[in-house]
Amino acid sequence: MASVASPVIFKEFCPLYYLLNAIPTKVQKGFRSIVVYLTALDTNGDYIAVGSSIGMLYLYCRHLNQMKKYNFEGKCESITSVKLLSCFDDLVAVGTASGRVAVFQLVSSLPGRNKQLRRFDVAGIHKSSITALAWSPNGMKLFSGDDKGKIVYSALDLDQGICNSSLVLEEPSSIVQLDYNQKVLLVSTLQRTILFYTEEKSVKQVGTQPRK
Length: 212
Hints:
This is TCPR2 protein. Pfam families: WD40. One of its GO terms (biological process) is protein exit from endoplasmic reticulum. It comes from Herpetotheres cachinnans (Laughing falcon). The protein has one helix and 18 strands. The strands form five sheets. It has a four-stranded antiparallel beta sheet, with no helix packed on it. It has a four-stranded antiparallel beta sheet with strand order 7-8-9-10, with no helix packed on it. It is mainly β and 212 residues long.
């Protein structure tokens, strides 16, 4: 006998005022007052990460009810993509409008975990806005895509503090989504979706017709 499906219960969720109130609506730059826009978002069970138009990453810890801020040195530019990962250490990858990508290895109070904030940079490959980021489950691989169709693979050695990056794929249109699992990178662009097999360096298209 088929089981009766449980009824769907709709819930209304209110805005996260405790989060929004911790992010300024304007900042002062010299004599100018600049409006802060929220430009990127990612969440997991531990954190809510919010990117902004002033190059500041706001990271809210859901367990401690604390907001922390991280930024890029130098030019203040809009954050266009953020991606969280909880593995042995908590990591967050951040991409900007000019193609800068950085990884923050967060501090943890748990025994044996990272005790000092560390940053890794993906330098000099992307030249345009970062549109998608994807982690491997163990945090050793990061893939980043931009609006010119470039996809960069970054190998991270957190123990040695090393990040090596290389261009692995170039599509003729903007990258809109990336996802990685079991040595296969799923890539969606404005024109098509493909599977990129990272070991064989081969590409298989999903479907036959291009997107309109």
